[in-house]
């Protein structure tokens, strides 16, 4: 019988997908984290594998299990995610940065548990910037003239008084230098941990974004179809 439609779209392509939220340690028992569930990254990994790709998932903290049969590297911090992703990207055709990477980490992680003390001031957490992994992958490709044919970023935006979500997304695509940017509108009840989602896919042509709504699996299939289309165009 004929294989189901789409199962060979990415046959022979190596696709690296990052997923979940990084955790930045404060001490051995505490961390700074974020609300990423990892569901979108896992759905993308499943969709890419179903399209015939050889998938490598670099997974930070997730509320869900990685898909069966997908090579998965577990990481905790942004720096660990950076190392694993740069390594995997060197041999990838496509990199999809769906992970929620902490922008900052505590300048120092205490080696022992931070204790409350009545005879000392309450602690103040000093943060330092994490490297921008997506920008680095783009930079490596630019400098070496080789690397992934397609680099996809994600943006979770709420919009604010100075710009709307699409405005921020366009600025981000330009700043990051990636090929596609998938925009998620986030708010208190939107996207994080939810099964229904709405996305817009922006490219550098200035064309209107491609919009998709539905479950994270449906949206993931749309993103993977777009990735496959970009690879042949
Ligand atoms: N990203 C990354 N490394 C970081 C931060 C973000 O690779 N240190 C990636 C994310 O995985 C995502 C894209 O960059 O694909 C956009 O992340 P986002 O947090 O929306 O962008 P930032 O540049 O961090 O801007 P903001 O100030 O809006 O958080
Ligand atoms: Ca950020």
From TrEMBL:
It comes from Crystallibacter crystallopoietes. GO terms for cellular component: phosphopantothenoylcysteine decarboxylase complex. Residues 15-233 are annotated as: Phosphopantothenate--cysteine ligase. In the C-terminal section; belongs to the PPC synthetase family. Its cofactor is Mg(2+); FMN. GO terms for biological process: coenzyme A biosynthetic process; pantothenate catabolic process. CTP binds at residues 103, 113, 131-134, 154, 172, 176. It comes from the Bacteria. Binds 1 FMN per subunit. Its EC number is 4.1.1.36, 6.3.2.5. This is Coenzyme A biosynthesis bifunctional protein CoaBC. Pathway: Cofactor biosynthesis; coenzyme A biosynthesis; CoA from (R)-pantothenate: step 3/5; Cofactor biosynthesis; coenzyme A biosynthesis; CoA from (R)-pantothenate: step 2/5. One of its GO terms (molecular function) is phosphopantothenoylcysteine decarboxylase activity.
